[in-house]
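Journal club prep — side note

Before the paper discussion, L.F. wants everyone to see what a predicted structure for a comparable chain looks like in token form. Sequence:
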Amino acid sequence: MGFLDNTSTTVDAILTKKGRELLAKGDGQFKITRFRLSDDEIDYSLYDTTHPNGSNFFGAVIENISLLEAFPVGKLKYFLINASEGTTAAGIINFSTSTITLNAGQRTTFNPTTDNVTDNAYIFTLSNSSAGTIQGGSAGGGSNTPMGTEVTARGKTIRFTARRLNQDLNATMTIEGLQSGARISIPLAIKAAPAGGVKA
């Protein structure tokens, strides 16, 4: 694994094991029929719409991130195009809001949909179980989940309940479509409980 020179536009590609075998034969069987694009090294949370120098600088940090050489599919997370076979457009997960702010004990439901591809279920990943609990789906993070750990649940919909906290906490709920591979991350802002406590 290495870094690419990102001073100019670069496309770095690798073949699968099967692709290398067909290319090595040299008999004309090698034809690219499928490919995937990903940008796992890019942290889009660094896109800063509050940059004091204006919109030309919103993506300045992202544009200067070192680019990695291509690596095989396996643990890739962020596919730029990931359409099901026979589908001409990539799946895009829709969710009703871009950021969720909750007070202690408040609940919200995650019920996403996907454009262009039918997702029968989703993987919901809460980045920090200290933020709250997940109900619904399989292997959800209930009240006995160790604090501070990542929690994953699988299903069509889940309910999230914010924990009672002594200080504000930020976390992320990532939603991934099982069929489409589409992914979206929703920032969660959990507000500290008032001094008098939280009513059930």
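L.F.'s comment for the group: The two ends are 52 Å apart (CA to CA). Keep this in mind when we get to the figures.
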